[in-house]
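Standup, Tuesday
Yesterday: got the pipeline producing structure tokens again.
Today: sanity-check two examples.
Blockers: none.

Example 1:
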Amino acid sequence: MSWIDGMSNSPPLQIDFGEPARAIELLSQACPVEVLNLNQKGMADYCWVDAENRLHQLERKRWDELCADINAVEYQLLRYLAVPSDLGLLIEEFVMPTSSGMRTYSKPRVDERGALKAFHSASYARPYSGIMAKLWSMHRFIEIWTVPNLDATAIAIAAFYHNSMRPSEEHLTFRRNLLGRPQFNANPYVRTLMGVIDPERRTLFGPKLSEQLIERFGTPWAVYSASRSELIKVDGIGVTRAQRLWRALGRKE
């Protein structure tokens, strides 16, 4: 990571004082940082405000912490969700299923031949499927990423931070039919539908209608794939709005 020109003009990346010194060192080379007691204030390990004045929170965990007590992690994240923000979870290192449960691997490194090496950390009798099911449930409300080590965590956070400092009109990913998130909602599927626009760049779904659609279809993809007859069964979706959605998606009527 290298020094970023003009970064002093951006709001600081706030880091909890309990985070590893290595992470603080790396991030201070790429972002303006401020070390605070965030966790005591009910905030995640990393926080910042983006170019659109939206708060982002990121919590850093290791697989060992999730395997030991994922319910405690869930409770901690629930506290952070009480603050209106986009919340994410970064999980470090590796976990593998075994015949008796799970095994975590810590401190991965690359040897002189370029092969990945990892040191065994701990074994857990809990089923791997249970952890995956819990994370699936969590991802309906927060973003989840996995990274191999602490250095990768710092690189990822710096990338997230700098990307969020660009105004929305500079972001081209999915720009053709998706706007920024106009209002906060804890469910990322609802937020996605709230950002869908028609070819005239008019928002198609408000918060309430987006929630109704996700409640009925489950995911944005299922909404996009639904037939017109299925869509108009939802209160608030008429033939005209269904046609606008199909045009936005490039589907043939």
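Example 2:
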Amino acid sequence: MRKLLAMAVPVVTLAQCAPQCAPAPAGNYQPGNCNSYVPLFEEYGLPVSTFKAIAWRESGCDHTVFVSDSDDLGGGLTGLNLKGSLAGTWYDWCGLTTSNVTNADTNVRCASVAYHKVGLRPWS
């Protein structure tokens, strides 16, 4: 009887229906590898060499970095500070919050908005 039941229940594994069943990758970002973020910098019209250097200085090229101390709140790849001089502006400009600052796409999109509005001021 067990053998019949096992045969009657179809089993579908991820490998059998891939790629249709596989979740879409959020990005091929590798924390610590600045080059993995280059396509994102290009997509948002940022100067790549400048923002690779910023990403290295601010987070070690790791979009998952989150900082909370007396002077800083936020971080992510480009070190966006929700306590800094632009604290009240980030949400208005690009919807940046403590909940999404470590999302690589959101972080770089917000960095792009800031760069195109005020240049490198947020990183000086």
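Quick observation on example 2: The helical segments are 2-8, 14-17, 38-43, 48-59, 90-94, 104-118. The longest helix spans residues 104-118.
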